[in-house]
Amino acid sequence: xxxxxxxxxxxRRDLRLDDNRGLCRALSHGGKVLPLFIFDTDILDALNxxxxxxxxxxxxxxxxxxxxxxxxxxxxxVRHGVPEMIFRELLKTYCISAVYCNEDYEPxxxxxxxxVREILEEHGVTFHTYKDQVIFDAREVRKxxxxxxxxxxxxxxxxxxxxxxxxxxxxxxxxxxLLSIHLDPVPPLSAVGFLExxxxxxxxxxxxxxxxxxxxxxxxxxxxxxxxxxxxxRFGTLSIRRCVAVALQHNETWLxxxxxxxxxxxxxxxxxxxxxxxxxxxxxxxxxxxxxxEFYHWCTGNTGYPLVDAGMRQLxxxxxxxxxxxxxxxxxxxxxxxxxxRWGEAYFAEKLLDYELASxxxxxxxxxxxxxxxxxxxxxxxxxxxxxxxxxxLHYIKRWNPDFESLSCPPxxxxxxxxxxxxxxxxAALADR
Length: 433
Description:
By secondary structure, the chain is α/β, with parallel strands linked by helices. The protein has helices at 21-27, 41-44, 53-71, 83-93, 107-122, 152-162, 208-212, 214-217, 230-235, 240-250, 252-270, 292-300, 306-318, 323-336, 341-351, 357-368, 383-390, 395-400, 415-430; strands at 5-11, 33-40, 77-81, 95-102, 126-130. It has a five-stranded parallel sheet, with helices on both faces. Strand 1 (5-11), helix 1 (21-27) and strand 2 (33-40) form a beta-alpha-beta unit. Belongs to the DNA photolyase family.
């Protein structure tokens, strides 16, 4: 039996009420809005571990969202399954006039949305998507000839020139248009096949004092002077417009990091082959060694290079790694060990709480020298020199790698030898191409 006439707002990477563009548009549609979230089995089934911090984060964010909605006399409908099938079921339960959501730019998300759109259109239901997780989407910042940028610096320059106040002005939802309804509590993780990790995540906040000094201290891992907001932007528990407004007021360097995020998103959108292929095709000819034993030592933080090992142990224990150390660890895997960047990218994708396909892919290809960065392949970080520059008192290393002075873990490879070997392999791959 059809219950109610509703407009559905489908939460995905936007788990908040405030300054949610798609939600605001749904609430202005004219009908009562039913909030919806789907635990997508196509995504969940691909995860290797049943103890995944990202699922814990999502579940806790949904509980907070449900609490806010219930204060307004509404609720959130939480389902578990394939989105196409979920919408077929909802069409049997509700008289749906329209479905609203915020746009996602990843290839699989685009495919999913197209499939859902087709199902809804079969039933005369309109499907509306809106820009929310970025300031400028992949089609808005382009060269004069209309082609996409493939180098960050000119992209960033154009991004900044294009920015107007209305691009980061925040909106508040008309909560009076939410459907009055009471539904079941957000299910525990066990209901969708996952386990608790013991992590507890706070509602994200913008620490303006930290952001003011971001450029001065961000490279020193022991200080931990980064915002840790990557996960909040990944799952939309914090508005990008709020972040940009604060960055413009307090720190240009942090604004640049937010622009890097959108740069990699538009790269992925325009060049979806980068998911599995080098942006610069000629680098597909690199003869990776892909030594499984050495890769295992890297994964477990036992390379014999204290800074690399500290970073990997921090990642394995917390789901986070300081950005400076990410660069060193990624460079070590791809250059010192000559392990295919795709191996490292997949490991980070499994472990990082703030994993985002576009940024993870873009940064790994940057480290391997095969991406859209203008710098050549012979940028190879020296872990010892990086330690002297950014952790000279070894505070970060001692925290995450306290046994670093033990002789039980000699270096897997000598830096000078590894550097020369990498240069030789890369040169051979690029010869005559």
